[in-house]
């Protein structure tokens, strides 16, 4: 079986400028958007990449900043965010914040927060950041994997039996895909919206996935 990671690195190196060390020089303000299936390891890779390159990682920070803009309590917003499975459920936000909050208003707040964070650079997890920053020069990456492999990885990280986690994985992935469709009218798994897609069924060593992303940063202008 061919070494997938080596093959991808060879392609990237073919279009990358030669440099004296193995770590690309990341310009200030560089942005990486990471979309991931639950259990695919995308969140772990984001944390490792941020540590290696000295970049801030933004996940819940995005929601907290939206809450601040809406003058709402961040903890309450997180609870509502977790329970609102469709954008039509945004009436819950209105109950919490007292704002007349519809889908368009929420999207505008989300876009403003993502653009604000992108000005100083960092790694943005999920929430359609790869679409908001499509023309910004950000590196846009998607992590995916089969439900079975993701369940095994999640079971190791959180405990439990892989078979019992399959439903949760499928439900979370469905909600994430539905959010992106409802908000941006784009399919979350559309390969044209990403610069690189990594299937962690094959790239199982997450440190190697970090290596791939550092190389990709040098390849993407």
Structural class, judged by helices and strands?
A: alpha/beta
The shape, in one word, is globular
Give the % helix: 55-70%
CATH topology category name = Rossmann fold
**Overall CATH class:** Alpha Beta
Query: Strand fraction band?
Result: 5-15%
What's the helix-strand series? HEHEHHHHEHEHHEH
Mean pLDDT: 77
Fourth CATH level, the homologous superfamily: P-loop containing nucleotide triphosphate hydrolases
Q: Under the CATH scheme, which architecture would be assigned?
A: 3-Layer(aba) Sandwich
Question: What are its keywords?
Answer:
single chain, Rossmann fold, 5 strands, 10 helices, five-stranded parallel sheet, 221 residues, 10% strand, 55% helix
Describe this protein's structure.
With 221 residues, this protein is an alpha/beta fold. The chain has one domain (29-219): P-loop containing nucleotide triphosphate hydrolases (Rossmann fold), CATH 3.40.50. It has 10 helices and 5 strands, in the order H-E-H-E-H-H-H-H-E-H-E-H-H-E-H. It has a 5-stranded parallel beta sheet with strand order 2-3-1-4-5, with helices on both faces. Residues 11-28 have low confidence and may be disordered.
């Amino acid at each position: 079986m061919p070494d997938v990671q080596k093959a991808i690195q060879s392609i990237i190196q073919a279009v990358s400028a030669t440099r004296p060390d193995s770590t690309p020089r990341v310009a200030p303000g560089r942005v990486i958007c990471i979309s991931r299936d639950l259990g695919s390891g995308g969140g772990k890779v984001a944390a490792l990449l941020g540590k290696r390159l000295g970049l801030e990682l933004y996940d819940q920070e995005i929601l907290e900043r939206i809450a601040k803009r809406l003058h709402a309590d961040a903890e309450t917003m997180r609870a509502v965010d977790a329970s609102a499975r469709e954008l039509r459920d945004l009436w819950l936000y209105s109950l919490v914040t007292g704002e007349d909050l519809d889908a368009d208003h929420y999207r505008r707040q989300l876009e403003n927060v993502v653009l604000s964070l992108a000005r100083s650079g960092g790694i943005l997890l999920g929430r359609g950041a790869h679409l908001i920053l499509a023309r910004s020069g950000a590196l846009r990456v998607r992590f995916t994997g089969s439900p079975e492999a993701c369940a095994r990885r999640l079971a190791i990280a959180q405990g439990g039996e892989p078979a019992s986690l399959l439903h949760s994985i499928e439900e979370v992935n469905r909600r994430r895909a539905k959010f992106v469709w409802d908000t941006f009218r784009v399919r979350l798994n559309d390969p044209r919206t990403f610069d690189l897609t990594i299937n962690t069924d094959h790239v199982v060593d997450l440190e190697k996935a970090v290596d791939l992303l550092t190389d990709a940063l040098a390849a993407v202008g």
